[in-house]
UniProtKB/TrEMBL annotation:
Pfam families: DAP_epimerase
Predominant cellular place of this UniProt entry's protein: cytoplasm
One GO MF term attached to the UniProt entry: diaminopimelate epimerase activity
Name the UniProt record assigns to this protein: Diaminopimelate epimerase
Catalysis: reaction(s): (2S,6S)-2,6-diaminopimelate = meso-2,6-diaminopimelate
Active-site residue numbers: 75 (proton donor), 75, 228 (proton acceptor)
Organism phylogeny: Bacteria, Bacillati, Bacillota, Bacilli, Bacillales
Keywords noted in UniProt: Amino-acid biosynthesis, Cytoplasm, Isomerase, Lysine biosynthesis
Encoding gene per record: dapF
Family annotation (HAMAP family): DAP_epimerase
Record function comment: Catalyzes the stereoinversion of LL-2,6-diaminopimelate (L,L-DAP) to meso-diaminopimelate (meso-DAP), a precursor of L-lysine and an essential component of the bacterial peptidoglycan.
EC numbers for this chain: 5.1.1.7
Length: 286
């Protein structure tokens, strides 16, 4: 079976995109396909698979599968690339439109230069802060409380966790130097911690000043990636909650793959602005 694909990335967070307006795939083969295309040895190499589809409730729909075959709720970098692909291929004819993800519908605004999208702003909606909705298991019985700098034991190491959902769960830990972040040890341990019944994306943040932070991530289902858009949003929300950056102002988030501009606006919505890039097109043989 030959499957046309486009490989795209947002700050190095790369996925294989299948145009569901043109190609129909069997539902039960999607996890297998995600694992197959993601392999750097026997596939194309990516952080996962994203389907771009028609939607009954928005202008376009996104489904995302991690490299382990599990389906994810949301992906910020993926949303920007879906918006670019939809506009570049003429599936939408306005520069502002809606995208449906498993976590809900968001608004997208594309910046067009010479008929091609380069930057995309996504209104990620309001963050979810209640423990029970993240979800994170409570030890006190109060599922409505917020998790802000809560003591969090990992092995014999005492850390402090702030938890946020951007349609998918995130936990943020602060470090003095991002170069020393224990991403490859704490990351895999925490992502499957029983305190997070649906797993969690694990972020490490170094605050440089009130408008700039460094960021690294261990993504649920994918491991270390170059960037995570929802994670960058969660990191800024966390940093506002911890009074390390200011709400309503743009914050530059430095990720391994590049920079995102995140704003937690006074109306409660989180805006994410960054690039979306097409790498290659081709056919995958399954």
């Amino acid at each position: 079976m030959k499957i046309p694909f486009t490989k795209m990335h947002g700050l190095g967070n790369s996925y294989i995109y299948i145009d569901g307006f043109q190609v129909e795939l069997e539902e039960d083969r999607l996890p297998e396909l995600a694992k197959a295309v993601s392999s750097v040895y026997t596939g194309i190499g990516s952080d996962g698979l994203i389907l771009v589809l028609p939607s009954d409730v928005a202008d376009v729909r996104m489904r995302i599968f991690n490299k382990d075959g599990s389906e994810a709720m949301n992906c910020g970098n993926g949303l920007r690339c879906v918006a670019k692909l939809a506009y570049d291929r003429g599936y939408v004819d306005q520069t502002e439109f809606t995208v449906e993800a498993k976590s809900g519908v968001v608004n997208a605004a594309v910046e067009v230069n010479h008929d091609t999208v380069h930057n995309v702003t996504i209104d990620m909606g309001q963050p979810i802060l209640e423990r029970g909705q993240i979800p994170m298991v409570t030890l006190t019985g109060d599922e409505q409380d917020h998790v802000i700098q809560e003591p969090f034991l990992v092995g014999e190491e005492n850390l402090y966790a702030t938890a946020v959902s951007m349609g998918n769960p995130h936990v943020v830990f602060y470090v003095d130097d991002i170069a020393d972040a224990p991403i490859d040890t704490v990351g895999p341990s925490v992502t499957n911690d029983q305190r997070f019944p649906e797993g969690v994306n694990v972020e490490f943040v170094e605050v440089l000043n009130d408008q700039e932070i460094n960021f690294r991530v261990w993504e649920r289902g994918s491991g270390i990636t170059q960037a995570c858009g929802t994670g960058a949003c969660a990191a800024v929300v966390s940093s506002v909650l911890n009074k390390r950056v200011k709400r309503g102002e743009e914050v530059m988030v430095h990720l391994d793959g590049g920079d995102l501009i995140i704003t937690w606006k006074d109306n409660g919505h989180v805006l994410m602005k960054g690039p979306a890039v097409t790498i290659a097109t081709g056919e995958f043989y399954l």
